[in-house]
Amino acid sequence: MAKAKSFYIILILGSLAALGPFSIDMYLPGFKAIAKDLNTDVPKVSLSLSSFFIGISAGQLLYGPLLDKFGRKKPLYFGLILYILSSLCCLFVTSIDQLIILRFIQAIGSCAAAVASIAMVRDLFTVEESPKVFASLLLVIALSPMLAPTAGGYLIAALGWQSVFVFLSLMAVLMLLTTIWLLPESYEPDPTYSLKPKPILTNFFVVLKEPSFYTYALVSAITFSGLFAYVSSSPVVFMDLYKVSETGYGWIFAILSVFFIGFSQVNSLILKWFTSKKIVFWALILQCLVSILFLVAALNNLLSLYVTIGFIALFLGCLGFINPNASALSLAPFTKNAGSASALMGALQMGLGALASAAISMFAADVMWPMPAVMTIAALLALIFLLIGRRKIKPNTINQ
Fold it and tell me: What does the record say about its membrane topology (predicted)?
């Protein structure tokens, strides 16, 4: 694929993949304003974040078979239109329960973009190219936590929290038009692909039986749950515990995202000398050490604002190494079932993310330790699954 064509395709796919993260990050500075406007509290508002995670997790299982049946673009159109309509409805909510439901529907729409973008990487690029492409996608996706909370903080301060959903609606309209006009169809629709429950479940089972998939998809998903623990608890940690302003919170979120971006791009460079499998292993070891030290410091009241930012930055940096390589390794064995495989991987990520977010919301809002506790559990579990699962991967399945 020509470099110029490859660049704009990666840019479009990255923008599509960033729709979900943008929808998560942009309204985070508005938690206090939403709680006040809807006569509730911040922990209840955080359930709208959990419902978004659940919607993305469930929706990806829906879109995987649709992408394999109808090609990549038609299901993508449907998801983006659903996202636009549900985002506009968020402007008119009068209770937190309505917002929780609409965020679930919004997530169902956004996950079409997430699944399609991952599947199209597998369609358009070779196994050897995929880790670098996923790292490039992360570069685009990572603009979300850099820009979204900062922009959201200023929008909310100037125009109210509803303005965030106006912005998200316009963003999705632009993506829909770009997809229609500029993005090629990368997969020939398969009229023989059945949408009946039994064949769909059979395809998912075929994917799940592949050791490379369940090992590296679980590693990616479990470590990502640590990221969601940070995202869901960060408004409380920074704005309540450390008394940071809405705009200040946005800037902290952006600075931390630089580490995620930076390490994911360093990953592209070191792939010249190290395999994806080695990078995942050593990054996980480092992430375990960082998260354990973070938890010990939190339990002993040794954390300040800047020390907390430092630990989170290191955790996200490790994730920048783990995620692009684990994603590429989990999808490497598949061609025909790439849509179903990417859907399962995304469902695992968002499902575990929803659990991590819900777990955080169960604790009191005036304590620090739940966030590093979930991060530590995630890192240790991922390492355990990697050590067990990689023994079952056949050497010729993946050569990275």
Answer: Multi-pass membrane protein
